[in-house]
Each structure stands twice: as C-alpha cells, then as structure tokens.
C-alpha cells in the first residue's frame, strides 16, 4: 500500500503524518508512507488545501486532519 501525506510542513501536516504512522502500526499493514512537501507535486493531486492524504493514488482527504477512525477505515478498505 502506498500512502502519501501532502503538505508543506505546517503543524497540521506533521500531525497527519504522525497519525497515519500510528494507524499503520496499529493495523500492522505493509505500507510505504511518503511525505510530499514540494508544492508542484502537491498541485498534481488537485487539492485546494493541505494537509492531504492519498491512499494508493486516490485523494481520500484534504484541508483537514481526519480522525484516526477515518484513517483506519480508509486503510482497511485497501
């Protein structure tokens, strides 16, 4: 599974990355977690606000920090 956290490095982006890593650890899934901070790369995902979360190429959330339960649900669906 490939997970991308989109953000320029703000506190919300860092928090999202931390939460994603926690959930991946709790679920024990095999995932590559990549932090994308380059603005041009972020714009390729057509999101209006960061942080953004991309799971296997699909944007599942942007502009807010989701609850851990939401992250867990998205990861379990893959």
Q: Helix/strand-derived class? A: alpha+beta
> If strands are numbered along the chain, what order do they take across the biggest sheet?
2-1-3-4
User: What is the count of β-strands?
Assistant: 4
- The tally of structural domains comes to 1
Poorly predicted parts: none
Mind telling me which CATH architecture this is?
3-Layer(aba) Sandwich
Give the DSSP E fraction (strand runs of 2 or more residues): 15-25%
CATH topology: Glutaredoxin
Order of helices and strands: EHEHEEH
Count of runs of 4 or more consecutive helical residues: 3
Oligomer status: single chain
Global mean pLDDT: 96
Describe the fold and architecture:
Disulfide bonds join 10-13. Residues 1-76 form the Thioredoxin-like fold domain. InterPro entries: Thioredoxin-like_fold, Thioredoxin-like_sf, THIRX-like_proc. This is Redox-active disulfide protein 2. The protein has one domain: 3-Layer(aba) Sandwich (Glutaredoxin), CATH 3.40.30.10. It is an alpha+beta fold. The protein has a four-stranded mixed beta sheet. The mean pLDDT is 96. The longest helix has 17 residues, at 11-27. The protein is 41% helix and 24% strand.
Features:
78 residues, alpha+beta, Glutaredoxin, four-stranded mixed beta sheet, 3 helices, 4 strands, globular, redox-active center
Quick recap:
With 78 residues, the chain is α+β, with helices and mostly antiparallel strands. It has three helices and four strands; from the N terminus they run βαβαββα. The protein has one domain (2-77): Glutaredoxin (3-Layer(aba) Sandwich), CATH 3.40.30.10.
